[in-house]
Design brief:
- The complex is a heterodimer of chains A (about 150) and B (about 100).
- Chain A has six helices and one strand, in the order ααααβαα.
- With about 150 residues, chain A is mainly α.
- Chain A is elongated and about 75 Å long.
- The two termini of chain A are about 20 Å apart.
- Chain B has about 100 residues and is an alpha+beta fold.
- Chain B has a single domain, classed as Orthogonal Bundle (Arc Repressor Mutant, subunit A).
- Helices cover about 55% and strands about 20% of the residues of chain B.
- Chain B contains five helices and three strands, in the order ααβααββα.
- Chain B has a three-stranded antiparallel β-sheet with strand order 1-3-2.
- In chain B, strand 2 and strand 3 form a beta hairpin.
- Classes of the chains: A mainly alpha (about 150), B alpha+beta (about 100).
- Strand 1 of chain A pairs antiparallel with strand 1 of chain B, so a sheet runs across the interface.
Chain lengths: ~150, ~100
């Protein structure tokens, strides 16, 4: 067995790992899931502007949408990754950041007299979030696959 | 050859399969087939060989929309893959290490 054969095998191992990770990101950040998650976030945040009992009434449809999205994801995902501590911490941090940003935006919107400040802030946050997440996902996939090309050029 | 080197796993198609499975918990048959790329029958044969060795687990899920075949590495399979990948790294590192120079005189 030659050095180049071993190097090629090692390059292929790395390439395949990157392929699997790229597919996980591509699928999870595809438009249907991003839009479903944005709708969930919007419903949760915008409900602050609804008078009682309508604010609480969005809970059931939100739960159904969340469960439906998870079920579809599990059925269709070509690759499932294990949830790591790092992934869970990042998710929790992102959730806290989202809530913090929402509170800031809605406070500012309320202060300047925007009607339905929570709904407007939620809409702005969701649009920005979807576009950012989609762009980030494309960057991650490109980076994973570019790492493959880099190893091939050696 | 290095102790961790696994001749069985080193077959290119099998190594590609386990390398694709390594970062994941479950992977769909269709993704493996398209990613390698190979045919259904060839992939099935390799998966049968890997399963016979105890390196992979194959699960068939039935649901309203049809049926899916999911594959994952077993703990043994994951350990063997890691040992084999580490062996490849060592072989490459050894081959790249600078050779000792001739003594002066």
């Amino acid at each position: 067995m030659t050095f180049h054969e071993v190097q090629d095998a090692l390059d292929d191992v790395r390439r395949r790992g990157a392929q699997a990770r790229a597919e996980h990101v591509r699928h999870g950040l595809s438009w249907p899931y991003l839009l479903a998650e944005a709708l969930l976030v919007f419903m949760a945040f915008a409900s602050y502007d609804l008078p009682n009992p309508w604010g609480g009434a969005v809970l059931l449809p939100s739960l159904l949408l969340a469960m439906g999205t998870i079920a579809v994801y599990l059925r269709r995902a070509p690759v499932r990754m294990p949830l790591t501590y790092r992934g869970a911490l990042l998710g929790a941090a992102a959730g806290l950041g989202l809530v913090g940003l929402f509170r800031l935006l809605s406070d500012v919107a309320g202060a300047v007299g925007v009607p339905a400040p929570h709904m407007v802030s939620a809409a702005a946050l969701c649009v920005a979030g979807v576009l950012t997440a989609h762009r980030w996902g494309a960057t991650v996939v490109a980076r994973e696959l570019r790492g493959i090309d880099g190893s091939r050029r050696r | 050859m290095d102790d961790g080197f696994n001749e069985f796993l080193h077959v290119p198609a099998r190594l590609a399969i386990v390398a694709l499975l390594a970062p994941t918990s479950w992977t769909e048959f269709g993704f493996l087939r398209d990613a390698i790329p190979t045919s259904d029958s060839a992939l099935s044969k390799h998966l049968s060989s890997l399963a016979a060795k105890g390196y992979v687990e194959v699960r068939k899920d039935k649901h309203a929309g049809g049926r899916r075949t999911l594959i994952r590495l077993t703990p043994d399979g994951r350990q063997e893959f890691r040992r084999h990948a580490a062996a490849l790294e060592r072989i490459v590192a050894t081959a790249r290490a600078p050779q000792g120079g001739e003594p002066d005189g």
